[in-house]
């Protein structure tokens, strides 16, 4: 197959490129040439800037499949999908954030997406979900019946620039008393970028169209099991998990997702359903998840291979002094309650 990837050199993109090349496909990259330009020197590289409307390098080209990992604004996706409409298939990487009712557990592909409350506003961080939903619609309008929409949950693994999941392998490897968020039974979801890439490739090879929630693992994962399995996989002895309730974390201004990463309180009025999305359709279509232990080991190895200056400034998670402070406050409050 002749495959075009819009992006291809960030986090998810390289994993897809490597999977496609390993399967014998021909891959062309289209991007700005600014992120990891050293990657894939032997591949055809087309240069342009979608945000600026510069996609002239794609004119007159046709591919068996177009993989869009870099579309965040509907006008970007509309332009690329329209220009490439003679191609066989358009696979757009969206997000579970596209759903309207993220407070509700069990969301599936038939549930409503989020409307944009301020149409035309392109502030990506503020309107990430609604914009992704509009991107999906733009792709389908340009190539009706030939689109595949993948809605991943939290994407993790080697190469992750966000450090959201990475916080936990790094923290567990340090050992000692670890502040664990909420209740041990709270659900979490994640998907390794390599597994997501493999599923994307499967969808284009099989001409699988439609919408798929790409979340994992296959069975419900408790935060206690994630942390316990992670500690065992890393061979860390003496890890002591101290569970701190969500209400106390909120009092201490400790944020779920960004500081207590991966985790969201199940009763969160806006995002309680985020780690409880229904992934059964993708599983039936061939999505496979690698063992959680492997993800922990590989992610820690990736982190340890980063430059020291990068590791000195994590982009997510709770700094060690703040963790110590919150744990002390929790214990002091618990002791006072017991004494009373």
General description of the model:
- This protein has 340 residues and is an alpha/beta fold.
- It folds into 2 domains: 2-152, 3-Layer(aba) Sandwich (Rossmann fold); 167-189 and 218-275 and 295-330, no CATH class.
- The protein has helices at residues 12-22, 74-83, 128-142, 167-174, 193-205, 223-233, 246-251, 280-284, 292-304, 308-311, 320-339; strands at 2-6, 26-31, 44-47, 65-68, 90-93, 147-152, 155-156, 177-181, 187-188, 191-192, 210-214, 221-222, 240-244, 256-257, 260-261.
- Strands 3-2-1-4-5-6-11 form a 7-stranded parallel sheet, sandwiched between helices.
- Strand 1, helix 1 and strand 2 (26-31) form a beta-alpha-beta unit.
- Helix 4 (167-174) packs across helix 9.
- The longest helix is centred in the C-terminal third of the chain and has 20 residues, at 320-339.
- The termini are far apart.
Which fold name fills CATH's third level, the topology of the largest domain?
Answer: Rossmann fold
Query: CATH H-level name of the largest domain... which superfamily?
Result: NAD(P)-binding Rossmann-like Domain
Number of domains: 2
CA-CA gap between termini: 71 Å
CATH class of the largest domain: Alpha Beta
Strand composition percent = 15-25%
Structural class of the helix and strand makeup? alpha/beta
Could you report the average pLDDT, rounded to the nearest whole number?
97
Count of runs of 4 or more consecutive helical residues: 11
> How is the largest sheet built, in terms of strand order?
3-2-1-4-5-6-11
Q: Please trace the helix and strand order, writing H or E for each element.
A: EHEEEHEHEEHEEEHEEHEHEEHHHH
Query: CATH architecture of the largest domain, please?
Result: 3-Layer(aba) Sandwich
